[in-house]
Specification:
2 copies of one chain form a homodimer. By secondary structure, chain A is an alpha+beta fold. The first copy, chain A, is elongated and about 60 Å long. The structure holds a DNA duplex.
DNA sequence: GCAAAAGTGTTTGGCATACACCCATGA
DNA sequence: TCATGGGTGTATGCCAAACACTTTTGC
């Protein structure tokens, strides 16, 4: 082990957990109790324990502090500004976590959780440098939505092409052309018809598609 | 500050410093003296000091342990495997650093440096998880070479299109078509003629191009 | 039959690819 | 004049973009 007199920066992991709620991208926030930011909203985070990887810390903090189990977790960036935590020197490894609607329904709303879902657009003036971390996570999501099928981790097992398009439009913050969108997505071969259809509307039922099992060949860590 | 009894994972920064030496991509390695890996090659790295950002740690470690000053430094990924350092719990923020030939000539070869340049292809069986870190850094370089002008940080102020093409080919590990390469690069508008030409060969002199000052609009952190 | 959303094809322009010869120089 | 690397243009295919009407359903 290292000499005991060496001072380390402390190491934490923070999670940007995102999910669609009624078509709006929401982020899971807690209310901090630390004196410096008392009452402010913050991303759920915790110090990395000696026996944990950063990934494991994120999974733990999401479960313990936010009542969440996310199927998709990805490291985004490590924030190390010296004054980012007023309590002392804390470096934070930031993660993005994505929840499908199914996972969203399983969010434990235990009373000890002060966690809430907040639309990303209204999540500002957060504690620490969490505005910056949130922005980085959303930027990562936007970038990856363009060249991977990451969006599957925010959507139900089966959904219509219209729902899919709306999800893309929400994340990318721009309108897409319906015919080109469909052509492109179907050409990618990541979707297959389920044979089922929506029902209940006073209009033509929509074909329900499912993501085919991931090839696993998606480049990460870039 | 945090209660004193809390145990932290220690935090380090490691640098993958890359430069072209005679057309071959080389990485700067040191020889570790720590008992667990004694004599093995490793990336230069150091613990992050309480008053430093990770970026600053990298700049310091490159200067102190590798005699290097790099114009370009970018964070790649944070490695947190529990057993990655046999001495104890150390999480490492990995960076890529790029040196131009000019910076390469300024590398301080002081005798206390055990640092050497090693072709990336022969840099394996490194200490810790540095094989993995090196691979991640090279992957990042390959990815960014495709959609940014990051390669400018590995090249001299002025170079020929052939040299530029060879640099791309070395990094991407594939051959490119000369005419298409030139069309594409010149169309991007990041190069301008210097008006100067190479000389000395028994063949037609080549036009020397320079990178125009960066637009600064390159997306980072993705 | 009408309101509402689902679904569908064609045209166009730009960009990546493939490919082969002439040019300028020094020896 | 020859050997060497520098430099150029055209044809093709694919993919992204633009764009409007028909279909199916419930009421």
């Amino acid at each position: 082990m290292f000499p005991r007199h060496i001072k380390f920066a402390a190491l934490a992991a923070d999670a940007v957990a995102l999910s669609f709620i009624e078509g709006v991208l929401n982020v899971r926030l807690i209310t901090t109790q630390v004196p410096a930011f008392k009452g402010k909203r913050a991303l759920p985070g915790a110090l990395i324990r000696p026996h944990e990887t950063a990934d494991q810390t994120v999974a733990r903090v999401l479960a313990e502090k936010a009542g969440i189990h996310a199927s998709y977790i990805e490291q985004v960036y490590t924030f190390s500004r010296v004054d980012r935590d007023r309590r002392g020197r804390v470096v934070s490894v930031a993660y993005i976590a994505l929840l499908t609607p199914t996972e969203l329904t399983k969010v434990a709303e235990r009373e000890e959780h002060t966690a809430i879902w907040v639309p990303v657009a209204s999540a500002n003036r957060l504690a620490y440098d969490h505005d910056e971390i949130l922005a980085a996570a959303v930027a990562r999501l936007q970038a990856k939505v363009e060249y991977t099928d990451i969006i599957r981790h925010l959507l139900p097992k089966a959904c219509t092409l219209t729902e899919l398009q709306e999800a893309y439009e929400t994340i990318l913050k721009r309108k897409l052309d319906k015919r080109n969108f469909r052509k492109k997505l179907l050409a990618q071969g990541v979707l297959k018809k389920t044979g089922k259809h929506t029902s209940g509307g006073s209009f033509r039922p929509a074909e329900l598609y499912a993501f085919v099992p991931s090839k696993g060949g998606i480049i990460d860590l870039i």
